[in-house]
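Archive entry. Fields below.
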Amino acid sequence: MTASLENPDDLDARERDALETLLKRLADDEFVLAERYTEWQVRAPSLESDLALSNNAQDELGHARLWYDVLEDLGYEEQDLVYERDPADFRHATLVELPFEEGDWADPILRSYLYDVAEKLRLEALEESTYPKIADRVGKIQSEEEYHLEHAQSWLERLADGDEGHERLQDALDRLFPHALTIFEPVNRDVESDIVDLGLRDATLEEMGEEWLSNVVPYLESLDLDVPESGQMDDDEFEFEVTQEMLPEERGRDGSHTDAWVDLYDEFTHTYRELGRSETTKIMEKPE
Amino acid sequence: MSSNTPDPETDATPCAYTDYREGEGDDDLPATGEDATGLEADVWDALYEIEDPEMPISIVDLGLIYGVSVEDGVATVDMTLTYSGCPARDMLTDQVEEAAAAVEGVEDAELRLVWSPEWTIEMVTERGKDDLREFGLSI
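PREDICTED_STRUCTURE:
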């Protein structure tokens, strides 16, 4: 079942659905997170941190574009994937769509940490993807992602070191952790099994979730933060047994989103609608 | 001008988003079209004329072009970018397609953006490294 899938025209309905679902999970996470990061532009606590987060936003937009490119091979155009898409069809985790607590720098820092650890594990599980255009993109993205974790951790350590920063981090963790768990939620069970059975990604959501917990829980605890209920069995063993109570009401992946998503969607599609666009390729005609 | 005033010509800094760390090379890269003949050589020549939007270096010497082939009048160019979030992507790819299609004997050009092997500083040609040094980069 892990023969290479090469030509998009040769995919059967099940393969196509699995491929599309995987790509939307990847692209939408990156795109929506970047949309949120840009809100810190010219508002971060220093020029250096402003540039760093803006740069991370640009990286994530670049990665979203790489994944949307692969969806375009399946016959979609950019406007179908972003500006004219039904907001309920977006497959990102709710972690990336939530608005930041106003003026709370601990929020984007913790959020990027929780997300970037998950992304690192997810990219590793795509290195040997049976879909060549996925596997071919992984190295490029990994090389650009390395800094993100470094950036988040260096800030986390500084914030955790002071009373106010520590308190803000704990608040952000209590608020964001349930939403971070939605990173590993299924779009639907069958298509998620197909993604792994077809070799598009070689780890299940549960396996990645477990690995993620075994990374983030000890690290956050080393900063004296209390991690909400996480399925930790004992000191170094983790089981990803997410119960309904641990998750937020909206799961993102299954198309249920928080109200904040509707507002964000309206915002980033505003100019496109305002200008009466029907395609995205050119914002202006070429000069004569 | 005192001697310690920065000279904008030589102290210019490169795009902060581009990663100039050492990387692994690839035996077949950089591709420069050195051994190309006929129409393919003409396409390489045309691509040599295109400069990176931020630095005075040909995109061929920068190592962005991975391959050129011409078959039945259609030129196919494999190309990468230094950075996935490059805001000049459409501008550059349009330029490359137009330059390749404008070569006499070429009727159409197709550009394939490729991301593997990923671009690293090892992909820059010796001439390209000289150009970048002159621009003020230490590589």
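CURATOR_NOTE: Strands of chain A lie at 232-234, 237-238.
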